[in-house]
Amino acid sequence: MGTVKSDIEIARAATKMPIAEIGARLGIPREELVPYGHDKAKISAAFIEAQSSKKDGKLILVTAINPTPAGEGKTTTTVGLGDGLNRIGQKAVICIREPSLGPCFGQKGGAAGGGYAQVIPMEDINLHFTGDFHAITSAHNLLSALVDNHIYWGNAQNIDIRRITWRRVMDMNDRALRDIVVSLGGVANGFPRESGFDIAVASEVMAILCLADDLKDLEKRLGAIIVGYRYDKTPVFARDLGADGAMAVLLKDAMQPNLVQTLENNPAFVHGGPFANIAHGCNSVVATRTALKLADYVVTEAGFGADLGAEKFFDIKCRKAGLSPDAAVIVATIRALKMNGGVAKEDLARENVAALIEGCANLARHVDNVRKFGVPVVVAINHFTSDTDAEVRAVKSYVAKLGVEAILCRHWAEGSAGIEELAHKVVALADSGKARFKPLYPDDVPLIEKIEIVASEIYNAGEVTADKAVLEQLLAWEEQGYGNLPVCIAKTQYSFSTDPTVFGAPAGHVVHVREVRLSAGAGFVVAITGDIRTMPGLPRSPAAERIFVNDSGYIEGLF
Amino acid sequence: MGTVKSDIEIARAATKMPIAEIGARLGIPREELVPYGHDKAKISAAFIEAQSSKKDGKLILVTAINPTPAGEGKTTTTVGLGDGLNRIGQKAVICIREPSLGPCFGQKGGAAGGGYAQVIPMEDINLHFTGDFHAITSAHNLLSALVDNHIYWGNAQNIDIRRITWRRVMDMNDRALRDIVVSLGGVANGFPRESGFDIAVASEVMAILCLADDLKDLEKRLGAIIVGYRYDKTPVFARDLGADGAMAVLLKDAMQPNLVQTLENNPAFVHGGPFANIAHGCNSVVATRTALKLADYVVTEAGFGADLGAEKFFDIKCRKAGLSPDAAVIVATIRALKMNGGVAKEDLARENVAALIEGCANLARHVDNVRKFGVPVVVAINHFTSDTDAEVRAVKSYVAKLGVEAILCRHWAEGSAGIEELAHKVVALADSGKARFKPLYPDDVPLIEKIEIVASEIYNAGEVTADKAVLEQLLAWEEQGYGNLPVCIAKTQYSFSTDPTVFGAPAGHVVHVREVRLSAGAGFVVAITGDIRTMPGLPRSPAAERIFVNDSGYIEGLF
């Protein structure tokens, strides 16, 4: 592996096309592209609106088995598949999330694909990009400032300062801000109270931006955010503080999807990036819808494994946006399947067909789950050089018994040339007309039942438990008119269970709902199981220490 | 005044030229402009470097009398003068600061000029613009996170958590964040300590960006930031935490100056915006230097009145960047002079020559002060409709006795047509060769003497007082090698004295230095006199409540 180029070396060596040419291939006139440099652009809201009567292309979801430290390469496969579809002559667009800036300075690793399946300019995408996350941060924190300012100037709304639920956000890994006391220092600074910061991607504003139809809908949803409760326990909305208009102004540009390109100069939309635990983990509805108007095939992805990401993509994003996926790709690697079969990370390079087959139980469960939504499935084996022929054969024959095809993909090493077979298969699946998409549960069952349905159908859990206070809270929200919302379950991504150390395909486990939160603007109820951190920390030796601009003006150490 | 258009209405009605054409007029090739939309662009670092051997144009500073609630229109005059110079056939560029986003949601009022002397697109400039302030915020807060993270993971540097001086920043008016306790919530969140947030423009990173020669110098200065002190009282630098490289990466794009245009399609650089109290209050050195290479006349401004803004422009920016101003314009209004002469705000519309002449003492002092730097002066009377002929005559004859010309300017109402006379006069002054610029004090006098020189020469104070601890701190910094730095005095902008209610031209007053701070990266020592807020609050009825996107997609309520 000594001569293998790093992701950033490959990205730097790429020949970029001017973004106006990428846009032109999608039929976007130059004046409807809002350029950010020569290689990034936003697509104007006016242009998007003008496409509404056009026919939609086919929607393909890329999801994965439960993530392991061995890596699965979901974004890499999404990008590779998009390139592969273009290679076989199809008009395809990729839709992925924007990465968060904060984590770049913690653990090494960007989020723009890898190897020969990347979106570029990767440095920009991983740093400030077009400023969307900064705009989200500003809008969120403006609301926070307005809450405390309202209380400072007399608290006409009677906000109970013990029951303010709206925190502040920052796009930074900063554990010191998780729990803080604000408004210290005397009368001029307000009323001291406990609060804290979450990372920007955990903001409800991020989820709202990604689910809103357009700027008007965005403003309405922003107004519906609950910032806390009055002394009489009634909710205080952002609109009660007159915050919605100014927040929408701050997000006006951010609402427009970003267009970039792959290493092979194919169009990619990179827009929005909500957390996949306390939010729904998909790129924006606006980007996906726009892509569907401009291309015949749209390849998108959802965060974490299919138990979290695909479920939320289907039950929250597709349900609410009226999207109907035509096919799904489940990404697996031989290495990750072996880990699911009990192999330790240091032994992954050794052939172990028995453990691999055992680990395939995890894949089989995800295949079964995705089919429950009425979406036809193909498995992509994202190739690593350590994979043996016997191992690849074992996975193929395992999934064949499930009536599903598994296709070996070498896009990481070869770009689109290594993923042609998958591209052909995806076209066949999406064009087969076999998709009969339906969400897992209807809108009108009680909130706790929705949680139970997901836990039973997707996680294969035996039981859902919750404290009385949690159950009462769910009932209260139903009485307040929020009962028709979907649920967004925050659970560890490493297991079907709530225990991150349980690999494979556990069954009959207990899912304990520790806490519930209402994202009234985004439009879902979050059920938290286990520990969910909404503000990461930096590691002992943060990547920031090794990041710099070299003498040639290139950024080093970011990836 | 019923039919007078608002600033935003005028701005909206303007015919913008594509920014590439504005750049072309300055000889900037299209590929060296980094576009942000069609009406904003950054100028590439490579292009800037390539201009270094070119001859410099003439540098003109626009400064003002002490600000009053009546308004002086310093930015408006800067923009108007730039347009006026272009109108009379000169190649002129405007250099001004970027406004801070936070205050836009507090009190009404943008910072991109006014009337028919504005830079556009004003909404963008007043909101996210090209993301510079967000980048500064991120770089600042990355360092903050690295400080607490370093302590969390064992504190190898032995940082005394009681002596951490580096706070966090946000571009928001949020008084609740002024004084906070961080790292609460238990072992996983670090060591609880007192801290707080300043507004982003108060960040030393902002001052550094505005004083750095280039990206390499920026990185060096970032590394020299002092974040706090060890238990042995030695300073801990940002470079000790390995933060400088990653901070420079975050600021790579922000270092490139922003090009926009005036209402009359003349080029304007809008770049950087440090506070004019605890920092030096001028646009970036990079922007000013680049403008000087591309134009024959560069019109720039400094924050607040000449006692603060011009003094820091000369003693900090010009001294450190080797700039040599050729002329200065002191902006005054009849209304503000009358307030300085004791007239109440509600009586300003009435003619009052006696009070006006009394208030001219303030103007005379500023004229005298600017001349101490060896820079020839002209006074611009920024016209208001309530000004009477007698009043204008009175000011003209008052300053004539000082050997200075005062010129009535109607750029607010008439654009460049209303400021031709001033433009001609400025050309004559700048071309006269009379400028003999020198800073007020040499580098090698003790820090306390530098403060005394400014207080005595500029403020006309009788005495400087300071606690023993302050004096000892200054001596300690001198021993550590910081004695050659200029001083940056934080004082109320409303008076020559430290009492904001004393108008006119007070003399013999006492300047008490309450606190001193070392901005080792920016390269100055801050002396704080009186109360200086580094995090503003929102008013009772914040502008945010009235800001929204209207049905035509335009932003309302921002100005």
Automatic annotation (TrEMBL), chains A, B:
Organism: Rhizobium tubonense
HAMAP family according to UniProt: FTHFS (MF_01543)
This protein's pathway: One-carbon metabolism; tetrahydrofolate interconversion
CDD domains documented for this protein: FTHFS
Keywords: ATP-binding, Ligase, Nucleotide-binding, One-carbon metabolism
Family: Belongs to the formate--tetrahydrofolate ligase family.
InterPro entries: Formate_THF_ligase, Formate_THF_ligase_CS, P-loop_NTPase
GO term, biological process aspect, one: tetrahydrofolate interconversion
Known catalytic reactions: (6S)-5,6,7,8-tetrahydrofolate + formate + ATP = (6R)-10-formyltetrahydrofolate + ADP + phosphate
Gene name of the record: fhs
Superkingdom of the organism of origin: Bacteria
Stated name of the protein: Formate--tetrahydrofolate ligase
GO molecular function, one term: ATP binding
E.C. number: 6.3.4.3
Positions annotated to bind ATP: 68-75
